[in-house]
């Protein structure tokens, strides 16, 4: 492709690939910009620059050429980076609390939590793919009819090809009367296992299924020598906040998803 150049003084901004920009000063790369399309179709942008002026130059070069809306995620404690994105016109869309979750049943108080009557719990990787996909679709339809799946983290949103549940081996499930009624997603490839989603069918909620699933998964992690897991919770999700804080999870930080429309 043809490179586009934007100059001001010694800094040269060059689009080096379809989704990459470089800022160069005196033959040194002093900033980079990247764009990626998430599986759900949303476009996320990131800029890493040595100085605020370089950030601004990269933003000025990138934003006119990109379709809107654009999204980015920022650690809320990084006030300088927040300020940079706000100067570029981005505004806050949603906040995610980052929790550190203990796994020891003596700490969580979940050691004596049995599943509700008639409910069977299946550990991570034990659920059958067909019933799990059926439950995933039911829950997604229920959420879409309420707050909408756009309020869910990007990893939980459907891909452009319509696929939703991509890796059944990452899920635990709760079964009742021959069908799955609840699920929990656990990612284990990170330094600290991460609980990405807990969901129960609407007609089976408020019966302790989510709490029993969480107890089952955390106990398994504890038996494996893992002391803590992590979880991200939308600040507007009062039920999830109460669930995690009720078992001794502590807030370790927060991320803001920003958007430019």
UniProtKB/TrEMBL annotation:
Pfam families to which the protein is assigned, alphabetical: Acetyltransf_10 (PF13673)
EC number: 2.3.1.-
GO molecular function: acyltransferase activity
Keywords for this protein: Acyltransferase, Transferase
Domain annotation N-acetyltransferase: ranges: 137-261
Entries under PROSITE patterns matching the protein: GNAT
Taxonomy, superkingdom: Bacteria
Keyword Acyltransferase appears in the UniProt entry: yes
Record carries keyword ATP-binding: no
InterPro entries given in the database record: Acyl_CoA_acyltransferase, GNAT_dom
Top-level class of the enzyme under EC nomenclature: transferase
The protein's name in its UniProt record: GNAT family N-acetyltransferase
Organism listed in the record: Nonomuraea helvata
